[in-house]
Amino acid sequence: MNAVPLHLPTLRGEHVRLREWRQSDSAIVRDASHDPLIPLLTTVPDTAGEPEALAFIERQNHRVASGAGYVFAIANEDDRAVGHIGLFFANGAGARASIGYWIGPSERRRGYAADALATLTSWSLKLHDLDRLELYVEPWNVGSWRAAEKAGYEREGLLRAWERIDGRPRDMYMYARLTDRARTDEASP
Ligand SMILES: CC(C)(COP(=O)(O)OP(=O)(O)OC[C@H]1O[C@@H](n2cnc3c(N)ncnc32)[C@H](O)[C@@H]1OP(=O)(O)O)[C@@H](O)C(=O)NCCC(=O)NCCS
């Protein structure tokens, strides 16, 4: 974790805007609570109550304030939140970071994940002192790895039994994208 609060920019994609989470975004958190996977992978509550949704939003803004990572609501062209995306530094700060994302069940298959991931990726690649962005995606999750490939990530391999989800070990594809500087340095002796 960084010692200082992060400053959260607003990022513009082709159709989405990545911006801070607001209390008025609770409907999409409650929508995500109905998803079978999202509450298992994230801190989205598995109950769709308003107080729990507001507490989730409060936690996102705290993550930025504490320097844990850049956490955005994904907003559509009407500025309505449709999902979530965040960038987290490995071991606190520095050369490696991972990205996680979800789109509310009622807002899928409209290109939001692909647009949000491409937008956050191109901004992150310019961050000082970053070499590598990573995504972990279960092989069955075609929507997620298609979004990754559209944003220029390469599949590096299969991490077997990488993470327990719902008590079961799950395989993950490891996707990564390197900064230009890391690519250049990688090629030199
Ligand atoms: C995975 C997820 C983020 C995709 O969000 P989305 O906004 O529906 O994705 P997009 O509309 O941007 O689609 C991206 C690509 O995947 C395809 N796709 C999306 N969902 C798909 C599905 N269920 N099956 C097959 N392809 C799918 C789209 O057609 C598109 O491909 P194309 O442009 O080549 O046609 C969303 O389903 C989700 O939040 N799932 C639960 C949480 C999760 O899995 N998060 C990611 C963890 S790694």
Automatic annotation (TrEMBL):
One of its GO terms (cellular component) is cytoplasm. One of its GO terms (molecular function) is protein-N-terminal-alanine acetyltransferase activity. Residues 16-179 form the N-acetyltransferase domain. InterPro entries: Acyl_CoA_acyltransferase (IPR016181), GNAT_dom (IPR000182), Ribosomal_N-acetyltransferase (IPR051908). The keyword Phosphoprotein does not apply. Keywords: Transferase. Gene3D superfamilies: 3.40.630.30. Pfam families: Acetyltransf_3. This is Protein N-acetyltransferase, RimJ/RimL family.
